[in-house]
Structure formats: C-alpha cells, structure tokens
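Protocol step 4 of 6: structure prediction from sequence.
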Amino acid sequence: MSLKRSLPLVLILFFVGIVVFLRQPDNGGHRARSALIMGTVVDVRVYGEDEKRLEKALDEAFAEMSRVEQIFSNHIASSEISQLSAATEPLVLSLETVALLKRGQQIALQSSGAFDMTLGAVKKLWNIENNRSRIPTAEELADALEGTGSGALVIDGTEVRKARAGIMVDLGGIAKGYAVDQAVRKLREYGVRSATVNAGGDIRLLGDKNGQPWRIGIQHPRQQDALLLTLKVKDQAVVSSGDYERFFEFNGVRYHHILIPQAVDLLANVRVSRWWRMTRPAPMLWQQQLLSSVRLMD
C-alpha cells in the first residue's frame, strides 16, 4: 500500500515556510494560554461564550499534553521512550506507547524507510537542537546507524525488544502532533467548537472562526516579511518542515535536523529550499507532522 493511498486525506505544506495566523476580527469571547510542551511553545486559543467552560477546557487540554510529554519525551529520563532507549533487555510498555510505536513502524514501511524513529543515537551525535552542533565522524555515524531501520524494534503484545542495545528511539516526528491531537480531543469533550492549537508552527484548527475559514499565512523562509501563500482552512491541520530554524553552517554548507535514514549525512540547504507540495485536507496533526518530514526526504 502506498503512503498516498494509506493516508489519502492529508493537508501538508511541503516547503520550508513558517506557518502564521493572519489577523481576523474577533466576535464573541475567547481565552488563550501558552506553555512549553515537548520543547516548543504551544499556544491554545479557544472561542465561545461560556468563559468558565473555556478555562476548564484549557486546563484539561494542557494537562493532557503534559501527560503525553511525560510518556514520549526523550528529554525526560522517566518517560517510557527514554526507558526504552536505555533498555538492554525487553521492556513492557503501556498500550498507548505500543500503539504509537506501531504507527511509526507502519509509516516507516509505507515510506520505504524515509521515516525512522530509531535514529535517536544519530540525532544525538549531530546535537543540532541543543546548540552544541558538530559534524560526527564516519565511524561514529556508522556505529550509531547499526541495527536501525524497520527491524530495530520487535513488538510482541506490550513487550518491546530492541535489535541492538544501543538503539535509541526518538518520536519527535510524531509525538508532538499526537499530543496536540489529544488536546483537541479534550477541547471537544468540553464543548469547544472553535479553537486553534499552535505548537511551534504546527497548527491544528478546530472548526472555523465566526463561520469563516481560518486564514493561515505561510512565511517565506528566506524573506522575513514575505508570504509564500495564504490558506483558508476549516477543521484541519497545517504543518511545515524545513531547514530554517534548527540548523548550523560549516564551510558554507547548511546542516539541519531532518535526517536521511539511508545515508550518514543530513540534508543540505539546496535539497529543500524551493520545494513544496500539497495534498487534500485531513483533521489529524500527527499525520501531517510526520509526513511533512518524510516528503522533504524524497
């Protein structure tokens, strides 16, 4: 089954633009809140007339994202993902974690390995996200890549076994989107019908705004005051991926955080600077977050 057929209703922005909201008039009440979740600032805005209900909905949405972070963050030593990365023996995990790992395995197969959640050790070597970046040696990269790929994790019920003890799992390509989708589920449970969740430019939209589509501008990655295009969307997710924020340059080459599983290198600027693509809309952010990175590797 092809990646396109398995997820046919996906709106993804395959370019290196920054997703921004365009100003629209507010009619009626709303509440907003921001917090640092999974290494990025998450901003949630909810709209409606019952302000107490809106505040409660915000409480529950942020509590849910924090709960997900405690399970899936590789920056929290007690998380199940950190425990899996450190494990030398088979590990029993929660049903929720196993379900997300299986999603990752499915997309890895459907993308012919373009998505690989077992590259945590490679990501750690480059260390781009911690502002202490360096170019690893070929020997270091070869060692970090050993055992990674489609057979790296063997799942039997709730027990997960790694093919090699040194394999490190990183769900950065899917966990943030999953956390946002869970937050939107909580908002719906509390009767919210209009909301935006912006997780560092990865946006999930609930309903519409005052009966009109949300207006989303895509900022040009090389021209700060320019927009690539404007979207009008309802009840969808919008995601961009690219080389414009998490990167470093060495000898005139830009190295960034999107890894190529089939090679011991990172994408260079020339590979992604002008490429974008769109398909049809879908409501789930985890799909868009994951697939936007996959397509940039094609």
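Step 5 (inspection) to follow. Residues 241 and 293 are 6 Å apart (CA to CA).
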